[in-house]
Amino acid sequence: MESEPPAAKPPTILDVAKRAGVSKSTVSNVVRGIRSITPKTQLKVTRAIEELGYRPNILARQMVHQRTTIFGVVVGDLANPFYAEMAKQIERFAAARSYRVMFCNTQGEEAVEIAGLEGLLQQRVAGIVFLAYAGGSTRSRALLEGRMPAVFVTCSAEWGDVVCADDERGARHATEHLIGLGHERIAYCADPIVEDATDRARQAGYRQTMERAGLTPTVFHWERAEDRLLREAPVEQILTGPRRPTAFVSSNDLGAIDLLDCADRLAIPVPGKLSVVGFDDVVMAGLARINLTTIAQPKEMLARLAVDTLASRIEGHLNGDPIRQTVSCRLIIRGSTARPPR
Amino acid sequence: MESEPPAAKPPTILDVAKRAGVSKSTVSNVVRGIRSITPKTQLKVTRAIEELGYRPNILARQMVHQRTTIFGVVVGDLANPFYAEMAKQIERFAAARSYRVMFCNTQGEEAVEIAGLEGLLQQRVAGIVFLAYAGGSTRSRALLEGRMPAVFVTCSAEWGDVVCADDERGARHATEHLIGLGHERIAYCADPIVEDATDRARQAGYRQTMERAGLTPTVFHWERAEDRLLREAPVEQILTGPRRPTAFVSSNDLGAIDLLDCADRLAIPVPGKLSVVGFDDVVMAGLARINLTTIAQPKEMLARLAVDTLASRIEGHLNGDPIRQTVSCRLIIRGSTARPPR
DNA sequence: GTGAAAGCGCTAACAC
DNA sequence: GTGTTAGCGCTTTCAC
Questions:
Q1: Residue B108: its pLDDT value, please?
Q2: Position B271 confidence tier, pLDDT thresholds 50, 70, 90
C-alpha cells in the first residue's frame, strides 16, 4: 500500500479501472470475487487497487442494494451489566459475519424505542436485534413487521424470531434450590427492567414450584423510581415486616444485588437470615463481595443464535414463520443462599 | 399516516413529487426544512408525504454527501462498566444531535482495533470517538489522520482532540487522602485496560505526592492473564509479603475491586488492615457491598464534550490544531479507606 | 471474459 | 418560489 497524498479524495472504481486499463465492471467483478476473470486481468486490477489504496465505497454499494450490512440493536440500558455483556457478544458475532452493529438505548421507554427504531429504519439497517422490547408497543410492530427481520433475545414477541433461555425452568431451579434448603416463605421479586414476557415466564416457574410444594407464592415489584430511597423504601418494609420472607427469587441479578444492598443496610445477614437467588449471572455476581447464587444464562450462546438467525433471515436462508429457540440455563450456587434461620 | 401495503417498496421522493404535483427538488426543499416555500406548496407536499408514509432514504443522501451521520466509537471492553457507562452517555448525546453510533470493541488489542477502524472507515463514519486507544498504534494514525476527525476520551494521542479528566490531580487527591489518614506504604496498582497515557498521568500524580511527602512510590502491574488465579497470584504475594503496603491507589475501579476481592479471599480486612482507592466511580463502586472510596470522573460531562467537539469538527465549526479539554474529578470517600493498622 | 449503459434516491447549482 | 439537470460510486443486466 502506497502512502496516498493525505486528504486527497479517495480513489473510485473508475480510477482503478483507468489505471488498470479495463472497464469499471471488470474492477467490480474482481472486487466482488466473481470468477471468470483472466488471471492476467485479475493481476492488473489487483495491482492498481493496491497502488491506489482503493477501498470500495460501501455507501454506493448500499445505495444499489437498498440495504446495509448493519444490525440495529435495541437495548434497554447499556449501563446494566447484563445488557452490556450481551451487547458485546452480539457485536462480536456480528463482526465475525462482517455485519456491524448500531446500538439504540431505550431506557425501557416506549417513546425512545420508537424514535430509535425510526432512526434505525432510516439508516436502512438490515435487521434488528431486540435485547429489550417495550412489549405493549403495537407501534414498533407496525413499524417493522413485514419490512425487516427482527429477533428478540431474552425477550419476546409473536411477530419475530425469539432466542431465549428456558426462563421458566430456570426459575424452577432457583425455587427448588431454596425449598431444598428448607425455606418456606419464599418471595419473587420483579425488576421492571426485565421484559414482561420474560418476567412472566420466570414468575410462572416460581409459582408452579411453590404451589407444587404446597407453599404460597408472593410477588413483589420494585418501584420504578429514579431515587434510590424511594425505590427501596417498600422493599425495606417487606424485609422488616412481620411475616417477612426468608428467601427471595429475583427476576435478575441487578435486582438481587439491590436486595443484598438493602439487607446490608438493615443489618440483616445474608445468607444467615435471608437467602437471595439472582438470574443472569453477570460478571459482578461472581465477585467475592457479592457472591450471589444465581441462574446463569448462556450469554454467548444466546448471542450466537441471535446473530445466526438474523443473518439467515437477511440472507434468505431462513424463511417462513417466526421460530423460537430456547437454551437451558443452570443454577450456580454461591454464598447468598443457605438454610433458613433457626 | 396511512397503512401502506406491507412489504411494498418504500416511496421515493419522486412518488411524493408526483402525488403533490411538484418537482422533486421542491419536495427535497420541504424535507430539508429550507424556507422560501409557499405555505400552500408546503402543505401539499407535507400531505403527500404523510399519505405515502415517505421517509427520506438516508443512504442516498449519504451517497451525495459522501459522508454519514454516524460516529464510530472504539471501546476497549463493553463488559467493563466504565466503558459501558461512557458508551451509553456517548450514544445519548450523539442521538440528541441526531448522530448515530457504531461501536467497535477492541479488547485492547491493536489488531482488532485496526480491523475495526477499517470497517468504520468503509462505512464512511463521520468521525471517531476513541474511548480506548492502543496508543503505540502508528497504523491507526496512518489510517485516520487528516481523513477524519477523531476525539480521544479518557485516553489520548497528539493527532486528535482530547477530552479527559484531570488524571494527575485526581491521583494526587487519592494519594493525599491516604497520606492524610496516616498511611506511608502506599502503592500504585496499574490495570492494563487503562490507556497508557492516562495511566502515566495518574501515576505521575501519585509519584509527585508521594515524593513531596518524603515517601517512596511503588508501582505494581496486574498480569494480563485471562485466568483469574494466574492474574491474582502476584498480587496475593504482595498483599501478604513482608513490607506490604497498607494502602493502594488503583488506576481504575475494576482493578480496585479485584484488589478487594483478593483481600477478602486472604481474609485481610478492608479498611482495617488495607485501604484501597479506586478511579472512575463506576456504579458498582457505590454498592453497599463494595463501598469503594474512589476518584469520580464526570462521565456525562466527558461524553458531552466529546460529542460536541466531534460534531463541531465534522460540521466545520471547529478547525485547526487539536484541542485538549480537561475536566476535574473529585474524591468520593466511602468505606474502603481508613487509618492504617496500629 | 469484458465493456457499455442504465439506474439506485437524493442533493445542489443553476435556470426560469 | 419552483423546476431542470448533473452527478455521488457502485452493481447489474445485456451486448459483444
A1: 82
A2: very high
- The one-letter amino acid at B50: E
Which pLDDT belongs to residue B127?
A: 95
Residue A138 has what pLDDT? 85
Q: Do A102 and B70 touch (CB under 8 A)?
A: yes
A31 touches strand D (CB under 7 A): yes
Which residue in this structure is represented by grid cell 424505542?
Answer: A113
Residues 32-91 of B with CB under 7 A from strand C: 32, 54, 56-57, 60-61, 63-65
Q: If you measure CA to C1', which residue is closest to nucleotide D5?
A: B25
Residue A273 near residue A34, CB atoms below 8 Å: no
Please state, as a whole number, how many other Cβ atoms lie within 10 Å of the Cβ of residue A19: 18
CB contact under 8 A, A257 and B57: no
Over residues B141-156, the pLDDT tens digits come to 988 888 899 999 999 9
Listed in sequence order, the residues at least 6 apart from A61 whose beta carbon sits closer than 8 Å to its beta carbon are none
pLDDT tens track for A129-159: 999 988 666 888 988 888 899 999 999 999 9
Helix H or strand E segment including A278: strand A275-280
Is B241 in a helix, a strand, or coil?
Answer: coil
A95 touches chain B (CB under 8 A): yes
Q: State the pLDDT at residue B136.
A: 67
Quote the distance between the C-alpha of residue B133 and its chain's center: 10
Whether residue B102 lies within 8 A of chain A, CB to CB, comes out as yes
Neighbours of A102 (CB within 10 A): 23
In three-state secondary structure terms, A275 is strand
How far lies A159's CA from each of A74, A90, A239, A272, in Å? 16, 21, 40, 46
pTM: 0.91
Protein CB footprint (7 Å) on chain C nucleotides = 1-5, 7-13
Q: How far apart are CA A262 and CA A299, in angstroms?
A: 28
